[in-house]
Amino acid sequence: MKEQILKKFKELFGSEGDVRTYFAPGRVNLIGEHTDYNGGHVFPCALTIGTYAAARKRQDKNLRFYSMNFERQGVIETSLTAMAPGKETTWTAYPKGVMWAFEQRGMEIPNGLDIIIYGNIPNGSGLSSSASLEVLTGYILKDMFGFDVTNQDLALIGQYSENHYNSVNCGIMDQFAIAMGKKDHAIFLDTSNLEFQYAPIHLEGSKIVIACSNKKRGLGDSKYNERRSECETALAELQKVVKIDNLGQLTEEQFEEYKGAIADEVRVRRAKHAVYENQRTLRAVDALKENNIKLFGQLMNASHVSLRDDYEVTGIELDTLVEESWKQPGVIGSRMTGAGFGGCTVSIVEDDAIEDFKKNVGEAYKAKIGYAADFYVVEIGDGPTRI
After folding, report:
1. pLDDT, tens digit, for every residue of 314-371?
2. How far is the C-alpha of 57 from the C-alpha of 52, rounded, in Å?
């Protein structure tokens, strides 16, 4: 991958100067969905697939971007002085948003850059290609210009840029999982205060299999912001009867006691998912610590049911993938992952069942949906790095 991207860089921009190469992973969330903006816990891990870049400083303030994933768009030329939140229409909105966010924090970028990007995360899959690109850009700026920022800072800058430059009201999970990734570990993160611990993932005899529905979705034009607004309204209603800062502070019993304060039945279900999913995530991490992978799988399954029925973010594509997965021998657990409305499912599948799983679920999906899903057997990897 490094050789390919350097070859393209040389072809487009020449080989002189200090050309550096970088990588930032994608991420998958094992459990804890739509809890990150509700003050709950999440349990994501970084992947060994992700986004690669070759970059070189310029002497002026100009920026030249090229994506090997969107070759028809050619070289996109712009400038550090031409960054306008909410006005971008190409993929360069993500790296430019991060550059803008650095400058908002008082870190002025002294030179423009030539940057080539290549990602092997399926675009629009829900494996966080956008957050991967954001963290990658931040890491390039840190390395190229010597900015004094930690990887955790890079996660916060990436989230800030997506919220304020791209107008997507995302939580912190995606950028945090990517920036703080650790090989063979998931990250147990309390999104209310960013306290976290690494939890080793021992799936002896099993693998993580991601199924991409190939239904594209964009966070900004999905119902993501609507769900977030529904939860914020429900929280405000609950705060009239119980002293809480976020939905993640409630136990299931407390929620059942106070849910009458929520005036609308739809908002009751939205808030119920946020509370119950948070508690499922706590139990799932405990199950892993006790090496109870069977219980972990059951909690994954229950997570999907809640996302389907209470949060209503699945849709026929993801439901088909998960429901067909549940029928397969050797499947420990399966659920949608990411924002929903398309994207991917994540399953834990016993090694000797993986080929049959891909064949059977793939055939059933194509027969029902009309086009194919793609399957990826993935490994858990580290955070961003210079390569």
Report:
1. 999 999 999 999 999 999 999 999 888 888 999 999 999 999 999 999 999 999 999 9
2. 17
Answer yes or no: 174 catalytic: yes
Element (H, E) at 376: strand 374-378
Catalytic residue among 174, 184, 264, 382: 174
The DSSP call for residue 247 is G
Are 190 and 35 a contacting pair, CB within 8 Å?
A: no
Partners of 189 in the β-ladder? 42, 196
Cβ partners under 8 Å of residue 331, min gap 6: 297, 325, 347, 348, 349, 350, 353, 357
Percentage of residues of the chain with pLDDT beyond 90: 87
Token code pair at residue 124 = 């629009």
Neighbour order of strands in the sheet with 62-67: 76-79, 62-67, 113-119, 44-57, 20-29, 385-386
Angstrom distance (rounded) from CA 152 to CA 193: 12
Q: How far apart are CA 336 and CA 343, in angstroms?
A: 8
Alpha-carbon separation of residue 104 from 82, 146, 149, 164, 365 (angstroms) = 14, 17, 14, 11, 46
Q: Is 255 helix (H, G, I), strand (E, B) or coil?
A: helix
Q: Collapse the DSSP code of 82 into the 3-class scheme (helix H, G, I; strand E, B; otherwise coil) and give the result.
A: coil
Judge whether 235 and 261 are in contact, CB under 8 Å: no
Using a pLDDT cut of 70, give the percent of the chain over it. Answer: 97
| pLDDT tens-digit map of 201-244 | 988 899 999 999 998 665 545 688 899 999 999 999 999 999 99
Task: Read off the pLDDT of each residue in 303-308 and give the average, rounded to a whole number.
Answer: 98
| pTM, 2 dp | 0.89
Burial per residue of 156-183, b for 16 or more beta-carbon CB atoms within 10 angstroms, e otherwise: bbbbbbbbbbbebbbbbbbbbbbbbbbe
What does the mean pLDDT of the chain come to? Answer: 94
Write the DSSP string, 296-325.
HHHHHHHHHHHHHHTS----HHHHHHHHHH
Between CA 349 and CA 333 the distance in angstroms is: 8
